[in-house]
């Protein structure tokens, strides 16, 4: 009787599921192939939940799985055998395991020709995995032990838009034009909390969000952003940047909207580009703000109307410096769209 009731409950759910995108035969095969260590919700049959199970190895994955959750386990090896039938995977979460680079069997990821999201944060990888599928759009590898990016590892990944490598052991010679070759459509790259001492080379011109917090960068080359015409969000908090390491017009890039330079060693406010909307300069060594030095246009040339010539700055953070209020009048006249100043 209990078995009959279970079957009736499943059949109640089958109707809506089949009506969406899964034939009855596939549905039944998926439910029946669910590993005993995992959970396969009847109303979400393409998802397999194997997280938080203290698994040391990956069970065989059902053939019609799209979403696979394996985070928070003790997995050390990605075996080809476990994924042999899982050719339809779109989303794979392997965060917080014990996977090493040697434990990623050759070609195991490349066979996942539909994979879009791959999460391998908080593992023991020493290099970026090779043979990644061309379908990949998001690759998260933060908080591993990655010190090398194999040459050519990104070639063919034309759809990759997000690359997260924060919290690794990457040095300047690991992040180069050669190692990043192939990232032709990258939008966001996170290289925060690595061991960089200079601005990374070879970033694709499509880069919109660049995160470099928590490195040891001391200077920015004068023409650095000429190769990054779309960069809009730039974070350089917690580095070793002094005012002498920032050329006067280095940030004069029309695309930059949000610039973060908190917790550095600046003694002056850099020239603020007209299009910038948010500027974080807290916890530096700045003693004063001189409007004529930071305003991108002549204060005398700004009339009372709000037009395209008026600088767009809306938020300015200056706390943690040696500045004493009030803010000079010429600064207020220049940045008349300011809505918040923290001092």
Q: Care to describe what's here?
A:
The protein has two domains: 130 residues, Alpha-Beta Horseshoe (Leucine-rich repeat, LRR (right-handed beta-alpha superhelix)); 114 residues, Ribonuclease Inhibitor (Leucine-rich repeat, LRR (right-handed beta-alpha superhelix), Alpha-Beta Horseshoe), CATH 3.80.10.10. The protein starts with a helix and ends with a strand. The N terminus is likely disordered. The protein is 11% helix and 11% strand. It is low in regular secondary structure. Strands 1-2-3-4-5-6-7-8-9-10-11-12-13 form a 13-stranded parallel beta sheet, with no helix packed on it. Helix 4 links the parallel strand 12 and strand 13. The chain contains four helices and 13 strands. Belongs to the small leucine-rich proteoglycan (SLRP) family. SLRP class II subfamily.
For the residues shown, what is the average pLDDT?
Answer: 91
Q: What helical percentage do the residues reach?
A: 10-25%
Give the neighbour order of strands across the main sheet. 1-2-3-4-5-6-7-8-9-10-11-12-13
How many E-type strands?
Answer: 13
Keywords: Disulfide bond, Extracellular matrix, Glycoprotein, Leucine-rich repeat, Repeat, Secreted, Signal
Organism: Seriola lalandi dorsalis
InterPro entries: Leu-rich_rpt, Leu-rich_rpt_typical-subtyp, LRR_dom_sf, LRRNT, SLRP
Family: Belongs to the small leucine-rich proteoglycan (SLRP) family. SLRP class II subfamily.
